[in-house]
Amino acid sequence: RWSECSRTCGEGFQFRTVRCWKMMAPGFDSSVYDELSPSHGKPARAKAAARSGRSQTGL
Fold first, then answer.
1. 3-state SS, residue 19
2. pLDDT above 60 (res 59)
3. Fewest C-beta in 10 Å: which of 22, 27, 44, 50?
4. Residues 6 or more apart in contact with residue 22 via CB below 8 angstroms
5. Cα angle 23-25-30, degrees, rounded to a multiple of 5
6. Strand, helix or coil at 35?
7. Measuring CA to CA, which residue among 3, 1, 2, 6 is closest to residue 50?
């Protein structure tokens, strides 16, 4: 689930938590430290986002 945009107007970022799991045995999974997770095929933790809005100075 992505977070709200980091800015209320213009370009910002959205973030989410990504966890890697390793199947140790059928029915037994364990989380893996981020440093030990392969970077290829891993979902992004941040992405650029943009919000449109009216400037407060134009009122």
1. coil
2. no
3. 27
4. 29, 30, 31, 32
5. 40
6. helix
7. 6
The pLDDT value given to residue 14: 92
Reading the block at residue 44, the tokens are 């992004």
Please choose, from the candidates 55, 47, 59, the residue with its C-alpha nearest in 3D space to the C-alpha of residue 9.
Answer: 55
Residue type, 18: V
Closest-CA residue to 30 (of 40, 20, 41): 20
* Amino acid making up residue 24: M
pLDDT for residue 53 is more than 70: no
Nearby residues of 11 by Cβ (< 8 Å), 6 or more positions away? 48, 49, 50
CA-based nearest residue to 38, from 59, 13, 20, 11? 20
Cβ neighbours of residue 36 under 8 Å, at least 6 residues apart? Answer: 20
